[in-house]
């Protein structure tokens, strides 16, 4: 590996790892599969901040009683603005708050209103401004918001890593299908467990 590759900035994109999507009492929870990746996500956040990296925390946001959003017909209300449901899950909330104070230039929080972290956000602009060409996706759900973000990242020409131990879904079969798609159709670097 060349010196340039070592020093090139990279970014972890943490998607929807919130109370509503992960906690046992979350409004649209993945449950245990999401809870089981908490330690891996914490390790990745710390790794990216100690190396040449950035951490983007991109979370779904909805307005209470919004019946015009397409997801209104598909899912119960979740990640409502100003609610506990939008807090990051478990120890990740505390970790990110602490690290924001220590590395304010390297932790960037964005709100999204569609599945993809790129849709309607300045994510691509910030990545390009920082010279970031390689991203790693983490969070939930592998086959929904991670998947849509991955498709956009592919179409925008980013190199993408997905670690199986840092993503989760409601549906184990859809999770595995998404990982296989990332690997065999998009050519992403998919890191498999054990």
Automatic annotation (TrEMBL):
Q: Which UniProt keywords apply?
A: Hydrolase
UniProt similarity note: Belongs to the isochorismatase family.
Example GO molecular function:
hydrolase activity
Question: What name does UniProt use for this protein?
Answer: Isochorismatase family cysteine hydrolase
EC number(s) in its UniProt entry? Answer: 3.-.-.-
Report the top EC class in one word: hydrolase
Q: Does the keyword Hydrolase apply?
A: yes
| CDD domains registered for this protein in UniProt | cysteine_hydrolases
Q: Do the record's keywords include Hydrolase?
A: yes
Origin organism is Anoxynatronum sibiricum
Isochorismatase-like domain residues? 11-184
- An example Pfam family from this entry, by short name, is Isochorismatase
